[in-house]
Design a protein that fits this description.
serine biosynthesis, two-stranded parallel sheet, amino-acid biosynthesis, HAD-like_SerB, 7 strands, 135 residues, Rossmann fold
Length: 135
Amino acid sequence: LRELVSRLHQRGVQVFLVSGGFQSIVEHVALQLNIPTANVFANRLKFYFNGEYAGFDETQPTAESGGKGKVIARLKEQFHFKKVVMIGDGATDMEACPPADCFIGFGGNVIRKQVKEKAKWYITHFDELLKELEE
């Protein structure tokens, strides 16, 4: 993944992480991949002043059904992207297409039957995408 993101950056492609996970974890991954934290869209945890867990920020688009698609629609509008490709391993990733123009199912961590069966392009290793970038 690190090599794929690096090659995309070399080509001037902006990379975003859109996740139903938590911002603090996803931002750590983004930093490892040289993705700006401004390009991370994820759920935010809330805590009380005494440090106790208070829930999550329900105003984040990723906190609601269809939220990943809403994020992609906003990005397309904001940056005037002509094409957006969504790569993911889950049904909520697949549901974000449209507004994403293409969905690539990923089974490198876990193979989800529904994603594997419905994705037009399904990969299990990022080397497959690196080969496509070379062509």
